[in-house]
Amino acid sequence: MLNPxxxxxxxxxxxxxxxxxxxxxxxxxxxxxxxxAEGTRRTRWRSLLDSPGYHQSQAWLERWxxxxxxxxxxxxxxxxxxxxxxxxxxxPLRRYLPxxxxxxxxxxxxxxxxxxxxxxxxxALHAWNPTLAWTLLxxxxxxxxxxxxxxMRRAHxxxxxxxxx
Length: 165
Prior knowledge:
By secondary structure, the chain is mainly alpha-helical. 78% of the residues lie in helices and 0% in strands.
């Protein structure tokens, strides 16, 4: 029932359902972050919220937060952290809501199309040749991990070369 790939509905209905789910999750995480920050203000840990590092991260969030919120939905495993940070950093709703809405639309469209096609293709290939299906999946994951690691290493070497590292 909750798996959108098993819904017998038009694509638009599936995409809309995915949008509603991700919008609820992202905004819930944002508000959880705001509650955490407010709760911290009432404890002995409130000095953390007055620290230079926290103020620096809030300035960074003010400058780059909206694009980061939007683009985090094109990644895997980062959305929760970014939305939580936006809430803890008290990103203004006038900036957060448009950014998260656009990100959720991108996510829903991506999963309603590429995710569905990928899942359906894997299922068909698995029915024909399970070994080939799993081998290709492992190769794809290894290639993706390698790409991310190489990109991170190059970025780190670039920072070292200019003295930031």
